[in-house]
Specification:
Elements lengths: L24 E9 L4 H20 L28 E7 L37 E7 L2 H15 L3 E10 L24 H8 L14 E10 L1 H4 L4 H8 L34 H5 L12 E2 L2 E7 L5 E11 L3 H11 L8 E11 L16
Antiparallel strand pairs: 1-3, 1-4, 2-3, 2-9, 5-8, 5-9, 6-8, 7-8
């Protein structure tokens, strides 16, 4: 769609219909709160709400006359299009470290991101008090939104790190591909099943979090020079899926369901294949499923002239311990680890939705 509704019980930009229906361009921007006190922090969240509401609706900016800096950059021209923009705002555990007297409101499962075996986390790419996920159909729309938001929130929110992302069209059909060449997002939950796995609805969590979601962002480099020297068969057994169609190795079409009960020794889909470890498809692991919403990144070359590419792995869940961490711990030492390098990211709590024109982000918290 050209416009995603801004007001609602949940924020937009999490459940966009269908795994490949997500907008093609994104920016993930972590910011640190520099507001002097809780009142100023509330004011900056109100400003952020106003800007997100205006930008996601589109429409001309006010004319302030030639004697003023213009209200808008005009990067998108005078008639600002909505262009499928979503602004999804999340908060990190460091916001609750009690600079702002919020310690008692800390979500139960919100901690700094765990360091997993094979991680090489760089502090400059890790954490943040706030995570902004901006998504739109074109990169200039993402740029415009980020430029507007940072202009209006400077002083209260200081950008810390940023990674831009892109998604491919179906090639040739079905789910879009990551930069290892495999369709990525096929087995995502959809519809009401997805909703029941991602939105927080838990009496043991603070009331202000209800309708929100735990967001995990992992910035993961892909070592494509190494990957491109691996045989097709080995690539496919690492994932458990065919590269051409995305079908599971025991199936014919992308959306066929793998049947692990028929292959207990892993003769067809190895026991350590990515999809088999990530989702063993047993009754007791069903509530560990999560919603992935990742984007490719390409930021040029490293100092050796190697491609500096990968993906911003992003997933949403009700419970970061029960879902993301359980899955991630099963994936430790999977064969794929030789070809990928996580170096940043964080755990965040995606705020509940902004209900109406009088509401603002985190209104039940601030
Ligand atoms: C499935 C790629 C990391 C969780 C897949 C698939 C691919 C893929 C190609 C198969 C198609 C699909 O169903 O989407 C990657 C790459 C990663 C990565 C390149 C980079 C390191 C992760 C991480 C997690 C994860 C960190 C969570 C901790 C899953 C899950 C599935 C999946 C839950 C679906 C399994 C199923 O339900 O059959 N991934 N993935 N992946 N991945 Fe990953």
């Amino acid at each position: 769609p050209a416009t995603y509704p801004f007001h609602g019980v949940h924020q937009a930009g999490v459940l966009t219909p269908g795994p490949s229906q997500k907008q093609k361009h994104a920016a993930f921007v972590a910011l640190d709160a520099t507001a002097a006190n809780r009142n100023d922090l509330k004011a900056v969240f109100q400003t952020l709400t106003d800007r997100a509401r205006a930008l996601t609706a589109g429409g001309p900016a006010p004319d302030l006359g030639v004697g003023q800096p213009p209200a808008d950059s005009d990067v998108l021209g005078p008639a600002i299009p909505a262009d499928g923009l979503t602004v999804t705002v999340s908060v990190g555990s460091s916001l609750f470290d009690d600079r702002y007297g919020l310690a008692s409101a800390r979500p139960k499962k919100l901690t700094p991101m765990r360091v997993f075996p094979n991680d090489a986390l760089d502090d400059a790419w890790t954490g943040g008090d706030v995570m902004l996920q901006l998504c739109a159909h074109h990169p200039d729309t993402v740029h415009h939104a980020l430029r507007d938001i940072t202009k209006h929130t400077r002083g209260g929110l200081q950008p810390r790190w940023r990674m831009d992302g892109f998604d491919s069209p179906p090639r040739p059909s079905g789910t879009s591909r990551n930069l290892l060449g495999f369709k990525d997002g096929t087995a995502n939950p959809t519809g009401s099943e997805a909703a029941s796995l991602i939105w927080i609805d838990d009496p043991s969590e603070p009331a202000w979090t209800q309708g929100g979601s735990y967001q995990v962002v992992r910035v993961i480099r892909m070592l494509t020079e190494f990957w491109d020297r691996v045989s097709l068969q080995e690539q496919q057994t690492m994932f458990g899926r065919r590269r051409d169609s995305g079908a599971p190795l025991d199936g014919n079409a992308e959306f066929d369901t793998p049947d692990y009960a028929k292959d207990p020794k892993g003769d067809v889909i190895p026991l350590d294949a990515h999809i088999r470890l990530a989702n063993p498809r047993t009754a007791d692991t069903a509530n560990q499923r999560l919603l992935r919403r990742s984007y490719n990144y390409d930021r040029g070359l490293d100092t050796n002239g190697d491609l500096d590419v990968g993906h911003v792995f992003t997933c949403y869940q009700q419970d970061v311990v029960r879902q993301f961490e359980t899955v991630q711990l099963r994936l430790v030492d999977e064969p794929l680890v030789d070809y990928v390098q996580p170096f940043g990211g964080g755990y965040f709590l995606t705020l509940p939705g902004v209900r109406d024109a009088d509401d603002h982000y985190a209104s039940a918290l601030l």
